[in-house]
């Protein structure tokens, strides 16, 4: 006597083939697939939530579940689009730097015209860069700390991102370097290594926001309350610009 198979269908009940009962799975994302969701607003939420998590905990300590919750998306969707935390981190870093450089490029194009192809010289270029940096970082105060964390971990991802961004925004530093060299040859400014000049400019602008909590405490302790409002930003832009230019001007 043959015992009925426990897995066989019960009498009187039709069964579907295994292939019909199985739930189709989404195929794996190929390595060449574009990274990022198709919906612009969804990507903005993801990048904002990811940057917040990376700023607080760094790449190693950040959790994809926290990012997904902050963006209001499913964690599986996050992994589907970005494939790994490292890919998402690189995308956030690229978006951060591109935001600043994209605004700079727009400002440079607005300054140039057929009647004034060179703009208004190194002074106008420096003022444009400093003003754009200060206002962009003021609107995105988490940018400096995020970049600072990346530099502290060696800047490997930043180097890769920067090389790619230079292909699109390379005219931003190139415009400044060209102006410095031309004005030095004309005898209007002292010869200066562009790298030192750019480092000084970046240091003064970024430190404005990195040191803000400390400056607020120091001001209170010394009896001078510092209000980081529009008037302060305008004063800071003038101060940085004057400091940079006074250091290279040739006094007659």
What does this structure look like?
- By secondary structure, the protein is an all-alpha fold.
- The chain has two domains: 49 residues, Homeodomain-like (Arc Repressor Mutant, subunit A); 156 residues, Tetracycline Repressor, domain 2, CATH 1.10.357.10.
- It contains twelve helices and no strands.
- The N terminus is likely disordered.
Task: Explain briefly what this protein structure is.
Helix content is 68%, strand content 0%. With 252 residues, it is an all-alpha fold. Helix 6 packs parallel to helix 10.
Topology (elements, then pairings):
Blueprint: H1 18-21, H2 40-61, H3 64-71, H4 75-82, H5 85-111, H6 121-139, H7 143-152, H8 156-169, H9 171-185, H10 194-210, H11 212-221, H12 230-246
Helix pairs in contact: 2-3, 2-5, 2-7, 3-4, 5-6, 5-8, 6-9, 6-10, 6-12, 10-12
Descriptive keywords:
single chain, 252 residues, mainly alpha, Arc Repressor Mutant, subunit A, Tetracycline Repressor, domain 2, 2 domains, 12 helices, disordered N terminus
Total separate domains: 2
Order of helices and strands: HHHHHHHHHHHH
Q: Tell me the name of the CATH homologous superfamily of the largest domain.
A: Tetracycline Repressor, domain 2
Radius of gyration: 27 Å
CATH architecture of the largest domain: Orthogonal Bundle
The mean pLDDT is 81
CATH topology of the largest domain: Tetracycline Repressor, domain 2
Largest sheet: none
């Amino acid at each position: 006597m043959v015992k009925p198979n426990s897995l066989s269908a019960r009498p009187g009940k039709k069964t579907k083939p295994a292939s019909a009962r199985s739930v189709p799975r989404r195929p794996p994302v190929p390595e060449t697939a574009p990274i990022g969701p198709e919906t612009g607003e969804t990507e903005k939420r993801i990048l904002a939530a990811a940057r917040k998590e990376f700023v607080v905990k760094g790449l190693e300590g950040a959790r994809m579940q926290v990012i997904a919750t902050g963006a209001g998306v499913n964690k599986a969707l996050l992994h589907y689009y970005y494939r790994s935390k490292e890919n998402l981190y690189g995308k956030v870093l690229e978006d951060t730097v591109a935001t600043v450089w994209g605004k700079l490029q727009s400002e440079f194009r607005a300054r140039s015209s057929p009647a004034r192809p060179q703009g208004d010289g190194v002074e106008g270029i420096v003022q444009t860069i400093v003003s754009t940096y200060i206002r962009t970082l003021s609107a995105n105060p988490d940018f400096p700390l995020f970049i600072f964390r990346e530099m502290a971990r060696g800047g490997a991802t930043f180097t890769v991102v920067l090389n790619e961004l230079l292909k699109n925004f390379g005219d931003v530093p190139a415009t400044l370097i060209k102006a410095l060299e031309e004005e030095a040859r004309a005898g209007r400014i002292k010869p200066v290594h562009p790298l030192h000049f750019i480092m000084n400019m970046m240091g003064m602008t970024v430190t404005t926001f990195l040191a803000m909590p400390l400056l607020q405490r120091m001001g209170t302790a010394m009896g001078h309350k510092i209000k980081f409002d529009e008037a302060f930003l305008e004063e800071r832009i003038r101060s940085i610009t004057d400091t940079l230019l006074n250091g290279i001007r040739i006094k007659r």
